[in-house]
Amino acid sequence: MTAMGAIVATPLTASASAPVPLDYQPVVATTTRLTSSCESGRPGPIALTARVTSAGGTTPAGLVSFSNGSTVLGSASLDMSGQAVLNPSLPAGRARITATFQGNPGQGLASSTSERLVQGVNSEGRCMTRRHSSHGGVGNTNNNNNADGFAGGGHHKRGRHG
């Protein structure tokens, strides 16, 4: 189990002669995974789902914030299975979305942020699908596709760099 910890100390006063008691509060690592309803390949409304797990096996409770770059889209509470769902309003183009679990000190759980998910959004704020060529790759089969093979947008995951 991967865990980090924090030590909390009671401050000394001039009259204190006894040792300072230390209270060790473990902070257990968490993982946040972000998915989009658009990953099914069908166009439609966008629903973002964050699933948070802990290294200790505890089902996390708390809030997840969803962001498009530096713009906060909203937040949602985790349900009993550790999932939070948000139906955001996104501008047309490419959204670069992350989900951040804010941690839960009461459960001893650390915060975590998902990998970035790049999502294509059409002018109605709905999913854009990916077009695939018959040879298994992403195709540029017509003028509606842009350089990365999305039909005017799309989705794929990229790891965080930095």
Automatic annotation (TrEMBL):
Residues 44-118 form the Bacterial Ig-like domain. It comes from the Bacteria. Residues 140-149 have a biased composition (Low complexity). InterPro entries: Big_3_5, Ig-like_fold. Gene3D superfamilies: Immunoglobulins (2.60.40.10). It holds the Pfam family Big_3_5. Residues 127-162 are annotated as: Disordered. This is Bacterial Ig-like domain-containing protein.
